[in-house]
Amino acid sequence: MRDDFTAEIKRNLAARVGHLCSNPECRALTSGPQDDPEGTVNLGVAAHITGASLGGPRFDAALTPAMRSSIDNGIWLCQNCGKLIDSDMTRFTESLLRAWKLTAEDHARYSLGRTAGTSTLVGKPELQLYLEIDKIGPDVYTQVPVRRFFLGLKNVGTVLAKFPGIRFNRSSGLGLDQFGINGNYGTGLPQLPSQQEWITFRGGNDHVIHAAEELMVTKLWQPGENRDVDGINVKDYPNLHTRSGPTHHRWEFKPINFRCDISAEGIPTVTVEKEFPSESVVWLRR
Ligand SMILES: [Zn+2]
């Protein structure tokens, strides 16, 4: 027994995305004219997000037949993409299809009523890295100076960025501040379990970055190197030495070349870099 969509639901699914395929990498137009001056061609399908019948792709036994055949469980796709999503269930998961659907509807909402000159059928989120120095301050445990950074993402595109993500390599020279963005273990996006050398933050359904907005993700930190009194101007620290040794040390932070991958639903993952010069600070010895 298949829980199929009604003709009305199929029409609404198509109309809600402007009759374009909801796969962000496809966006094929699915309706057009037939040679017969009164006929239309439909190349779209109302696909089930979770299977219409037992054993179907992504079947969810917890749903009732009414839920399974409701508009919430449908996504409008071209015929090719309709086949594609049923051929690989590990790649085309329920949450990915839901992201496609939300993005395609946003796309249509944003494009609605716009003229060709301002048409934004190509409207996309566009994410940029936000990485700025916060300050050099004491480590909570050791009290020696560390250089802290704010890590975030900025949407410089024209539409909402859904499922934003950022990952960077442990070898970047910057470590994760365990106290998070606000000193209270909070982060702007959920952190995924570590995968080898990668530290990854990725948002789910309820994490979005609006056009022209920034989202702070977390803080990062860099350890310094103790250079003893090397480079300290004695004139500035007349009592630099006491009988028990120097009163101050110079700490140096090496230059950073931070590379990361940033992504969101509907745009390809891009690798971006940002460099910071070395910096040093004179620090009271503890
Ligand atoms: Zn398609």
Describe this structure in words.
The structure is a single chain. The chain is mostly beta strands. The chain has two domains: 7-115, no CATH class; 127-284, Immunoglobulins (Immunoglobulin-like, Sandwich). Helices cover 14% and strands 36% of the residues. The chain contains four helices and 19 strands. The strands form seven sheets. Strands 5-6-12-9 form a four-stranded antiparallel sheet, with no helix packed on it. Strands 10-8-17-18 form a four-stranded antiparallel sheet, with no helix packed on it. Strands 13-16-19 form a three-stranded antiparallel sheet, with no helix packed on it. A hairpin with a 6-residue loop joins strand 1 (31-33) and strand 2 (40-42). It is elongated. The chain starts with 6 loop residues before the first helix and ends with a strand. Zinc ion binds at residues 21, 23, 26, 28, 77-78, 80-81.
User: Which small compounds were modeled alongside the protein?
Assistant: zinc ion
Indicate the CATH topology of the largest domain.
Immunoglobulin-like
- Neighbour order of strands in the largest sheet: 5-6-12-9
Give the tally of structural domains: 2
Mean pLDDT: 89
CATH homologous superfamily of the largest domain, by name?
Immunoglobulins
Query: In CATH's first tier, which class of the largest domain applies?
Result: Mainly Beta
Quaternary state of this entry equals single chain
The helix-and-strand class reads mainly beta
Can you count the beta strands? Answer: 19
Rg, please? 27 Å
The ordered string of helix (H) and strand (E) elements is HEEEHEHHEEEEEEEEEEEEEEE
End-to-end CA span: 74 Å
Query: Any idea what the CATH architecture of the largest domain is?
Result: Sandwich
